[in-house]
Known about the structure:
The protein is mainly alpha-helical and 376 residues long. The chain has 16 helices and seven strands. The mean pLDDT is 86.
Amino acid sequence: MRIRFAWNGKRYSETLALPPTQAGIAAASRLRDQVIQMIKLGIFNEVKYAELFPNSPHAISSVSRGFGRYAQVWLDSRSIAEGTRDNYKSVLNVWWMPYLATTPLQNMTTALMRELVVQIPWTTDGVKANAMSKLSTILESAVSDKLITVNPMEGLDIPDRTEAKIDPFTQEEADRIIAALYDTQHWPSQIYAAFFEFAFYTGMRPGEIAALRWDEVNFEKRMAHVCRTVAKKEIVERTKTKKDRYVLLNERALHALQIALAYCERRASSRQGRIKEFPFCFPPSKGNPFIQQTSDLHHQWRPTLKALGIRYRPPYNARHTYATMCLMAGMKPAFIAKQLGHSIQILLARYARWLDGASDWAEMEKLTFAPKVPQA
């Protein structure tokens, strides 16, 4: 048995699991009349389509009525960075798909989600908060698509996300690390010394430094244009915040660039290796024009810290070190935020301890000038 009808300017034909009898024909006729009436009243939509024709290949909701299939369609439709897309995939596959892949969207009630959140063996509150937030974002789109009427995650308590602990190096530690890297006997590895000197004294993110090109450096104005980064071994024409910025270069940053420039010129003149041109400021010692991944940095970083007896922290902490050094030196927060590509609010929230520390002892010094207390 098959019925036909027009909806949204298109003709649809649906096969029904009804026998070709008088009763079957009557049932098909009633169903078609119901569809036509709902279309006339403007209440026929993809959800109703899926309810009336659950095996139809035409309705989007029939394709996406299972959460797993809808989540995949949702993810494919988003214009987002590859790193963000991979993060969504990872969260969905690890935490939600084992339980929800085939669950119809309409069955995902707040009660079901509350029970599921209790059952899942979360590793940390941060992981739990991230997973719940991402799921809520997808289900909010399902509400917008009119596949469900309410977001079942709305009634659940999502844990507050805790900021990652800021753990910078001291300036003395930073200088020891830089000196040890420059002291390497393997000449090509000195490019990493220049890289980390530049990182410690500009506060740029590792991916931004790896993607920095010589045509973005103005030696005369002592300035670098930060407008791209490295993500998944590729140059991406954007920064993490999607906003470019100009970073002023101090003497240490300029020194690192001069070392890097001499390094590039020496490699170019040697005519050895498959890379003949060096548009990026910090080309690795391997046959790549730019540092493609943080593991390349770790090969130089981890052994150096171990040899120096300095407690291990990731290379990204060079950025935190620059921020705290600037704060302790009394620089204005607005300037530091501009250098880092932060908002002032984020800077103050993230580095408040060092901002206070720079001024606390200055306040204590005022006791020196207090009037003497009479002695008994």
